[in-house]
Write a structure and sequence with these properties.
The protein is built from 7 helices and 14 strands. By secondary structure, it is of the alpha/beta class.
Amino acid sequence: MPDVELTWLGHASFRVDSPGGKRLYVDPWLSNPKCPEGEKEPERVDVMALTHGHGDHIGDAADLGKKFSPKLVAIIELAGWLEGQGFPNASQLGFNKGGTIDVDGIKFTMTHAVHSSSFTVDGTPVYLGDPAGYVVEFENGTKIYFAGDTAAFSDMQIIGKYLEPDVAAEELSDINAVCLQHVREMLYDGAEELLADRGRYTARDLLNAAVYGAKAAGNRSFALGAR
């Protein structure tokens, strides 16, 4: 079975091509300044996963939803709001923390996150449910933890122990050695941090090349093999 191909699209946006041929977008803010020109206009979107409702994570979600009608993985309040913005059937899969759903052979488990979640409409913040993260298990058994925007929190120990992600994709707003170390401690030794760009560091600065079996500096796409 083919590998999982993970492509960083700037900020906290990722494109993931699954072994079964599905194309997943996580937090698709494709108008962010770090997104490559060739990635700003997707050819297709089969599944979309959103961690919370801030504009730098759902910036292009409604437009992509209207264009491609993907299956949406999001907390129920955010899913319902996007359906009201014209995203077809956005609330069909809406679920909540602790739940696991199977979307065309890809399993999503919603986890906790320590952050906030709203979108400003006409100057007024609209509540869009709790922020969340996901442990995504692909068809070949590879598991990726998309933490979303979050501080380190003790339940990461549970995520690491019981959900056993192979790789963690984590965006931190002001990365420093202490905060990074806390995230590593809260997860477990088998999960390495892939950090999206925000501030002084970029994803390629902080990639642990051992996860991918080769020096990763300069790459945006990585193949993650079966367990």
